[in-house]
Amino acid sequence: MKTAQYKWSQSDGWRPNLPTGDVGRQSVVFVFGARSLVQAGTLVGELRDHLKGAAMLGCSTSGEIAGDVVVDDSVIATLVDFEHTRLRFASATIGEAKASYDVGKELAQQLNDASLRHVFVLSDGLHVNGSDLAHGLAGGVSEGVSITGGLSGDGTNFAETWVIADGGAGPQRVATVGLYGDDLRIGYGSMGGWQPFGPLRTITRAEGNILYELDGGSALDLYKSYLGPHADQLPSSALLFPILVTEAKGGQGVVRTVLSVDEQNKSMTFAGDIPQGGTAQLMKTNVDDLVDGATAAAKASLSGLGDRRPDLAILVSCVGRKLVMKQRTEEEIEAIRDVFGRDTKISGFYSYGELSPFMHGGECRLHNQTMTITTFAED
Amino acid sequence: MHRLLRRQLRKHLGVEGEVPAALQSFVAAVDSAYTDFDSDRAMVERSQELSSKELSEAHDKAAQAQTRLTDALETISEGFFLFDASDRMVLCNSRYRELYPGLADLMRLGLEFEHLIKTVVERGIVPDAAARPQEWIEHRLARHRNPGGPFLHHQWDGRWIQISERKTQDGGTVGVFTDVTEIKRREEELAAARDKATEAQRRLVDAIESISEGFSLYDADDRLVIYNRRYRDMHGTGSIDVVKQGVSFEAILRNATASGEIPDAEGRVEAWIAERLARHRDPKGTHIQHRSDGRWIQINERKTDDGGTVATYTDITDVKQAEQAIQESEQRLRVIAEAAPMAVAIVTFDDGIIRYANQRFSEMFELEGSSALGLQAKNFYADPQHRERFIDALTEHGHVESMEMLLKRAGGEEFWALLASQRVQFEGRPAMINGLADISDRKRMEGELHKAIWASEQATRAKSNFVASMSHELRTPLNAIIGYSEILFEDAQSAGRESEMADLRKIQDAGKHLLGLIDNILDLSKIEAGKMTLYLETFELRPMIDSVAATITPLAKKNGNALVVNCADEVGTMHSDLTKVRQTLFNLLSNACKFTRNGTITLTVLRDMDEVVDWVEFQVRDTGIGMTPDQQAKVFEAFTQADASTTRAYGGTGLGLAITKSFCRLMGGDVTLVSEAGKGTTFVVRLPAVTRAASDAAGLAAEKRSERPQVAEPEHAPIVLVVDDDPNARELLRRHLQRGGYTVRLAANGEEAMQLARTLRPDVITLDALMPHMDGWAVLSAMKEDAGLAEIPVIMVTIVDNQGIGFSLGAADYLVKPIDRDRLVRAVDKCCPRGAARQVLIVEDDAPTSELMGRTLRQIDCTVTLAENGRVGLERLKEALPDAILLDLMMPEMDGFEFIARLRADSRWRRIPVIVVTAKTLTAEDRARLNGQVQHLVHKGEYSGKAVLAALDELVPRHARRACADRP
Predict the structure, then answer these.
(1) What domains are there in chain A, each with its CATH number?
(2) DSSP 8-state assignment for residue A17
(3) Rounded to whole angstroms, how far apart are CA atoms A302 and A305?
(4) pLDDT tens, residue by residue, B384-432
(5) According to the lineage, what is the superkingdom (chain A) (predicted)?
């Protein structure tokens, strides 16, 4: 596997300069960039022109990761040329969130065959029910095929998110790449670093991914009381206090962040389902805990590779983490770099949601507030 | 150095590794500040963590407390809820949920009370709210916000819920819900029980009031407790007002005696009161008290268990009066019996001894004075069987209305008496009272009357027989007179001899008139002799009416009359005697034509369905001379015309209407008339659309009742083999035939019939057409093929109308002598159409007749062959095959019946049409004989014993003379 990384910034342009000439047939360019740059299309066009033959897969972000640096308002392109692994791409437009499961399943079925090893997915971050999408994808592939990826971001604007695929770039899209062949090794790890605090509250009224009431009272009112002066900056300020949601029957809780609020109905819309009758608990964190989480995710992602070091690691980290860490955001990337070493090419983005199985495996789920890492290696 | 500071130095100042000396102290200060901040933050977080932990513990405790509270609330049997100050549900227990299963989907924390109440109304959980839902909701919410005392809701499922709400200190509301259905139910039961008790008491009072006796109950202290109105009313004016609850028995007695209500107490008041009190306190069954108002009261007193006295008082005044009345009436009865014109005796049942007899009885039996008393009644019966019959009847019915019996006077003289008897009680013993009238004179007269009637009947029968035979004798010469005068008339006509024509016409007319007279006399004599029978068939009315109208039209025109027929095409069919219906209409129409000049004759046919019968009504209206009421009264009598003078003016025999009336009645209908002299007459004939032949079953039943001894089969009597699968039919025939003097053998099916026929060689066989396996027709064919049996005559007995079969084998038509020329021509034309050469064989023994027919037929281009009897006829057939045969029935050597049988037996001749020529009107039997090779066809529905016998009598002399030789 060969990798090359190109960064574009307003001050420097492309660094290094984009090459000319064909690249390998089994190659893909992962493109992560600010929504305005992606939407403008110029840079993506330049990539297509220069990296002929490579397929393109990317999205808008809330911050781009390259090496051990986190930047905004840039485009990061990572060319990956697989030696043995074959690639196939599938993308679709999602009309409404309700169709998420069906779209996920449809795409997975397009990719699925006996030699499919892994599906990497990038999805719209605002108009998709991530839980359903993950469930649909998992339902469309054979057992043993792992699925990872993330929901595209839009800074802290929550206005519009774009996905880049061969068919073109645009909002409300889902793009996937299937990786095939026995020579491919995939690892993944996903960890948050958030601690629940305060009383355990009962979800007394919720429909789908919309939460109305906790303990018989307005959930939004309760939430606002926690945010205090930050309440004005909802929904982005809600990222500071995600909630831990556990189903009524118990099991592992998932972290959920707010996508939007409705003052009229006193409701909050989340990136994934909120089970009525289950419990909810507010969460908090600090920089150290988040960095510890990132380290744990990186270590976990190595276990799938056996004795191999990863050639490539794609990091999908939640925008909420970035809001908490501010200037210290890069500390979690550095911690990951410390785990992988200098030889691993690192790319990634800050997202509106992460897709991955839990640490110990199982079906792909939607996560919030985590550092989710997918590692690639070829024998 | 702090990691963030190192990165900031690198990023913003490009410093890697050693910090420049100039910045060192600054960087050290910032580094210290970063580190201090981290340390402070760690402390803050630490304390926050601890508080969170403590909060969590406090929360757990609170949760635990709440769980306990919830558990406690779960254990109580009432439903419980708590709403907070903003009226959202905080908690409720499961009992509350159970009370409202219809709201299960709503029950959750945060539920708004208003929403809850609205849903209660929407889902009809409290039906009372349905009438004014909005008002109910507002009322309920107001009560919830400002609770008063407990209140009840009646739920849709019948339960009663008591709701008790109270405000909590923090402005919330707790509610306690108790299911009080059971309590409510008990309350209702209690109320119902109370009602029942009241009702029972009321009923008791009603019952006591409604009994026909007076009733009183005195307690142990002799105070009146309960009584009814009758008891009170029993008392006279002096004591009635005293009678009320609580009064003492003695007080009533004293008031009654003081006002003289007790006649027995007159003059001994104290003694009577003492006796009455003693009886009251120690009752001994019933006693009777006479009151001064004339009433008799029967008093029945009895002690009650608690020492009281209960009594009933029955007014038996009526009984007392009835006893008296009986005594008086007995006395009266004796007086009446003595005065009665009949003999009266009372005889006790058990010993048969006369206990009373009046004077007339003694006189009737020629006894002296009252010596009848104490005598045995049976001595007065001349015939012990008569007495037995009388006693049986009396025992069975309790009375005998009138019974004729032969009695015996003391002197031994026998006499007839009419006896009426009634069972009675005489001095307490069962007895009979007998009334007797001497009817010896009447008996004698009756005997004489019977003799006279018998003689008269004999005479009538003799007359009818005479008339019938005379008529036959008269018709034959008339045949020649009419026929030859007709031929001579035609000859004279063609020769133009006018004067002869007028004379010949007179001869012809006179002959025809005489023939009509004879026919009518014949019909009338048949009717009188009871020999007129009906030949029933089903026919379409419309064609019949058309044919009648066509026939009558020339007659109508003769007098300048118009004939109008009102008859619907779909007037339908009739089952009746076609010939008689036609004749009836002819008679009425020709009468109408006769008595009307230049007028209109209207024939109207209607159907009229009443409740029982479908009637066909024929109306014949004319505009002729009409009749006076006197004439109308006599018009249906025989030999009568409306006026003797009419006979002269209009001709006619005066028999037509009498015959018409007889025919109509025979067919189950009648003819009536409406007429006004000078204006015209309307005759109305009403006949049932379906005429039923008189049932023979009635005749059989009548015979059974009379139980005549069976006639023994005479020796050497002709043998009749009866073949029928129906045992009832077999038995019926057997009885008729045996009585007629025949030996009868029975066969139940065709096979048995064939076998018996071969061994018995019966003289006649009667054969049922419809039988299982081998039907009558099959048996008939088999017999006709068997040389030994072929000659045995067979009478077909059938309920099936086999005219169809018969017709294909039998006669095509028949003609009645004297031969009507036109009819003859029409009949022959029908058999063999004109145009081709036609050969006709005439088989007729009467030479003038055959000659006459021959001449007529030759005139219409037929070749005619003559034969003087059946045998010669057969000879002629062998020589040449004719196109039609004219056949007389009565001929020497071989008659028409035998001839036709032979004809039909030969396949070459079978199809030749035969026209029967007969001197008499064909009977139904005659037609059947002609309709095939069978000698008789008798319909079961119409046959009578007489008919069968008549048929046999006709057959047997011809075919079985040997067997009949010794018959008396």
Answers:
(1) 2-191+288-378 (no CATH), 195-283 (2.40.30)
(2) P
(3) 5
(4) 888 888 888 888 888 888 888 888 888 888 888 888 898 888 877 888 8
(5) Bacteria
